[in-house]
Structure formats: structure tokens, C-alpha cells
């Protein structure tokens, strides 16, 4: 005979059920964090931060009793406050205001979560130096973040930010700011107050202009404004004295920016609408090493391209260039010249495939010295060997370059030749001159 079926079988287990508890952190991790001051909870699938994390600095009686069972190494006087908390790559949708219970934090990593807002309590973490917020769903930053006077790094890329608080300029110790891949249409003028900033990334936004105050960032070495809606660049950016790398790719620029920034070595202006290169813009690039002009609408290269005497890499890929000036071969440091995707005429395709050295050799062969006129006298372009210079530059570009000669004087013949040819620019750098005759 079969056993009678109990109708209340399932319900009889109700007394053994427990309510859903908050996620827990292995005690071993907490124990180690109390000693090291660092707690890494990245990639654990957390939907919220356990209270045991926020109360890590608080020695409750229960914890004290528990610590005894783990030996003398867990004594309260051997504990340290938490300084580094890593919560990246979880499923956090909010951060509790209890974060204020960890005032000693210097690093807080929240990147790659689902946060749509941040608590104002972040402003109480006055020791914070690094705040990583990238890859979330933030639409704004709480103004309290701007009170973190020790903050050095703020990364908030890949969010939904549409504006920034004007108080952002209060973060005067900030050295790195990444706001890329957001929905920013404008920037606060106080941005210029971040005078310690060295790296600023504004790429992948909806900026149509840059604030003039950007020029006050005299310590910025890298500025990335790629993939915006910029039609021009403020001329006063040349006041950014430390700027070495400037990225302006994928904008709506029609002219090469005229930026005599004294340290600018790399300029990236690919994927714009630039149609011509003008002498004024080229002359500004005094120490340029890399110039990217790919995917524009450039039709010709001016003879004045030789003004870029420090250039090592020139990318002209996918433009409308049909001819190359022979003077291009006179760039003394040019190592890489990219020309694919241009309708070049008069240059065999197989020559282009042989690389930069062969192409420059071919262009040098096209330069022919102009014959001297018999009536030009001794001050014509006949110079002694010790005064060897590039005659093409003098005659065509009105440029006299007599650099790196280890010379202690400049031959008089050079001054005579310069005057005779109407030279407007001279370069006597890297010599041993003690004076120059008037």
C-alpha cells in the first residue's frame, strides 16, 4: 500500500528558508585587506557592495571576537584603513552613500558597471587621488566630486555625460582627465583652471568649438579632440607651451591649424576637409616630427613643405594630389612618406611600391641647379666649400639654412648671397657662434 501523499510537503520546509541576503565577501579577502589596505572585488558579478566592505575600517565586537580565533596577526593594532578599492567589471547599478565610511581611500575603481548616478558622499573622500568611472551610464557628475582637492586622475569615458559642472576647475591637482566617448556639446570655461593637467582626452563627443580658456593649460602634453564637430581651432592654443601631441582627426576642419606651439611634435588631422596647405601654417610647425594629413582633399603640396626640416613621417594617404614637388626630397629627416590613394601622375606605380628612400632619390634627381649668369660677379651663388648650403632653398624658398656645421663664424659670402637672392628666413642653429656680424 502506497504512502499517503502529504499536501503540505513543500510548505513544511518554510521554517528552514532564509530571506535573500546581501552578497558576501570571503573572510580571507577582508582579512587580507585589513592588513594591506587594498581590496580587489573586480569581476565578481556583484549587484551591490556588501556592507562588510563599507565597515571594513570599523572593528565591531563580533569582528574582534572572530579575529581572536584567527590568531594574534589579526589584532586591531595591526590593521590599516582601506586605501584602494577595486569594484570594476561588476553589475553595480548604484553606489551607497556608505562609501563615506572609507575616508582613507586614495583609489576607487568603478569602471565597467551599470551606474547611472553617483552619491554626493563621494565628496567626503578627501584623500582620493584616482577615480575611475569609465564604461557606465552616468548622465552627470555630482558637483561634490569637484571638491576632491587631491584628485589626480579622473577617467569618465564611455558614459552618457551631456554637460560638466562649472566647478570642475576646482580640481587643481588633476593631471589626467578622460572625457572621451560621451555626449558633450560644450565645456565649462573653468577647464582652463586645471593648470596641472598633462593629458586631456575630449574625443568622440559633439563639440563644435573649444573654449579659449584651454590655452591656459600650459602643462598639457597630449590633447585629443578627435571625432567631434570642430570647424576651427583657437589660435591661442599655441600658448599651450608643453603640447607635444595634438589629435584632431575626424572633424570638419578646412585649414591646417596655425599653431606655433613651441613643443608640438605630432599633429594628427586626418579625415577632415583640408584642401590646401598654406605657408603660414607650415611655418608654425617648427619642431614637428609627425604630420598626418590622410583622408583630406589636398590637391597640391607647396614648395614651402621644406620648411618642415624636422619632419620624419608625412602621411598624405587618400588625398587628391597629382604631382609632387621635387623639393620634398630636401627634407633632411624624412624617413616615411605615405602616398597611397592619390591620383599621382608622372611617377610609376612600381616606384611608389619601392618605398620612401627610392621615391626621395627619384625626386632629388629632378632638381636641376640653375646656371649662373656671367655678370653676377663674385657675390653670385658661387660659394666656398666651407660654406656649402642648399642652393635650391636659397633661390626658390628664400630660405638660408646653415645649421649643424660646428661653425664659430658665418662666412661673409653667405650674407652676400642671402642679400642678393632676397632671402627672408635664416637658420643658424646648432653651431658654436659667439656673435653674428651686422
From TrEMBL:
One family name in Pfam for this protein: LRR_8
UniProt-listed SUPFAM superfamilies: L domain-like
Keyword list, A-Z: Leucine-rich repeat, Repeat
SMART domains, sorted: LRR_BAC, LRR_TYP
Membrane-crossing residue ranges in chain numbering: none
Keyword Repeat: yes
GO cellular component, one term: cytoplasm
Keyword Repeat listed: yes
Designated name of the protein: Leucine-rich repeat-containing protein 40-like protein
Native source organism of the sequence: Lates japonicus (Japanese lates)
Classification lineage: Eukaryota, Metazoa, Chordata, Craniata, Vertebrata
Amino acid at each position: 500500500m502506497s504512502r499517503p501523499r502529504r499536501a503540505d510537503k513543500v510548505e513544511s520546509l518554510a521554517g528552514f528558508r532564509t530571506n535573500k541576503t546581501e552578497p558576501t565577501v570571503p573572510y580571507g579577502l577582508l582579512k587580507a585587506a585589513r592588513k594591506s589596505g587594498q581590496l580587489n572585488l573586480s569581476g565578481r558579478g556583484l549587484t551591490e557592495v556588501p556592507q562588510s566592505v563599507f565597515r571594513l575600517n570599523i572593528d565591531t565586537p563580533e569582528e574582534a571576537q572572530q579575529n581572536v580565533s584567527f590568531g594574534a596577526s589579526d589584532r586591531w593594532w595591526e590593521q590599516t584603513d582601506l586605501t584602494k578599492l577595486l569594484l570594476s567589471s561588476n553589475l553595480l547599478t548604484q553606489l551607497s552613500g556608505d562609501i563615506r565610511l572609507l575616508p582613507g581611500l586614495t583609489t576607487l575603481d568603478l569602471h565597467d558597471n551599470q551606474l547611472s548616478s553617483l552619491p554626493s558622499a563621494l565628496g567626503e573622500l578627501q584623500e582620493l587621488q584616482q577615480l575611475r568611472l569609465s564604461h557606465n551610464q552616468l548622465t552627470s557628475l555630482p558637483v561634490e566630486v569637484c571638491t576632491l582637492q587631491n584628485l589626480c586622475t579622473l577617467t569618465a569615458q564611455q558614459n552618457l555625460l551631456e554637460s560638466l559642472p562649472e566647478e570642475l576647475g576646482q580640481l587643481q591637482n588633476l593631471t589626467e582627465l578622460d572625457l572621451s566617448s560621451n555626449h558633450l556639446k560644450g565645456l565649462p570655461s573653468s577647464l582652463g583652471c586645471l593648470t596641472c593637467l598633462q593629458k586631456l582626452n575630449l574625443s568622440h563627443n559633439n563639440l563644435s568649438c573649444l573654449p579659449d580658456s584651454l590655452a591656459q593649460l600650459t602643462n598639457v602634453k597630449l590633447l585629443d579632440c578627435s571625432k567631434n564637430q570642430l570647424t576651427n581651432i583657437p589660435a591661442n592654443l599655441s600658448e599651450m607651451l608643453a603640447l607635444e601631441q595634438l589629435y584632431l582627426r575626424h572633424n570638419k576642419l578646412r585649414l591646417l591649424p596655425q599653431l606655433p606651439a613651441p613643443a608640438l611634435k605630432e599633429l594628427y588631422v586626418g579625415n577632415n576637409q583640408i584642401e590646401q596647405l598654406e605657408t603660414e601654417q607650415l611655418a608654425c610647425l617648427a619642431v614637428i616630427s609627425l604630420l598626418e594629413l590622410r583622408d583630406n582633399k589636398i590637391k597640391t603640396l607647396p614648395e614651402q613643405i621644406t620648411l618642415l626640416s624636422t619632419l620624419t613621417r608625412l602621411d598624405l594617404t587618400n588625398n587628391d594630389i597629382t604631382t609632387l614637388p621635387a623639393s620634398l626630397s630636401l627634407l633632411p629627416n624624412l624617413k616615411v612618406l605615405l602616398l597611397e590613394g592619390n591620383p599621382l601622375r608622372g611617377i610609376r606605380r612600381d616606384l611608389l611600391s619601392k618605398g620612401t628612400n627610392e621615391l626621395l632619390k627619384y625626386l632629388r634627381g629632378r632638381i636641376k641647379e640653375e646656371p649662373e649668369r656671367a655678370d653676377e660677379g663674385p657675390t653670385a651663388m658661387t660659394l666656398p666649400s666651407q660654406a656649402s648650403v642648399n642652393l635650391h632653398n636659397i633661390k626658390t624658398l628664400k630660405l638660408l639654412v646653415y645649421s649643424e656645421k660646428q661653425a664659430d663664424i658665418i662666412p661673409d659670402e653667405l650674407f652676400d648671397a642671402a642679400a642678393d637672392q632676397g632671402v627672408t628666413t635664416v637658420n643658424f642653429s646648432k653651431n658654436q657662434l659667439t656673435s653674428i656680424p651686422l
